[in-house]
Amino acid sequence: MNYFEILNCDVNSTTEEIKENYRNLILKFHPDKGHEDQEMFVKINEAWTVLKDEKQRKLYESQLLSNEKSHLNVYKCVCLEDMQKNGDGFSCPCRCGSEFCISEEDTQVNDVNDGNLFISCDTCSLLLEIIPSRC
């Protein structure tokens, strides 16, 4: 279980949302409240210590991404500008003969410049990693 899961949030949660969840959980699991799961209390505090600090949180998020990437079936890594522009989106051929497609709106919502983005092939299980700058 990662720190975000411990605090019932995700990587997109704001610090305020994480703080609110932390406060609710710390009250629920506090030993003085008669809760016997002291290990969970310690994990909640540990998670909050990392996620409340911007530098520690960024480092933790990059470690999570690195761990996740090692388990992904990534076909290749491309920059958005290397993908073919078509209509209202971008595409890149997959080795299965199909294509990886992403709309221009999705590239803005998931701001590629903020970090890597993964899209799946419509036909097979491969993923395409879109990175902020040239490979």
UniProtKB/TrEMBL annotation:
GO MF annotations in UniProt: ATPase activator activity; ferrous iron binding
Keyword Metal-binding appears in the UniProt entry: yes
Chain coiled-coil ranges: none
Signal peptide range: none
Family matches, as Gene3D superfamilies: DnaJ domain (1.10.287.110), DPH Zinc finger (3.10.660.10)
UniProt keyword annotation of Iron present: yes
Residue intervals of the DPH-type MB domain: 66-133
InterPro entries: DnaJ_domain (IPR001623), DPH_MB_dom (IPR007872), DPH_MB_sf (IPR036671), J_dom_sf (IPR036869)
Family matches, as CDD domains: DnaJ
Keyword annotations of the record: Iron, Metal-binding, Zinc
J domain: residues covered: 2-64
PROSITE patterns in the record: DNAJ_2 (PS50076), DPH_MB (PS51074)
Family: Belongs to the DPH4 family.
Matching PANTHER family: DNAJ HOMOLOG SUBFAMILY C MEMBER 24 (PTHR45255:SF1)
Protein name (record): DnaJ homolog subfamily C member 24
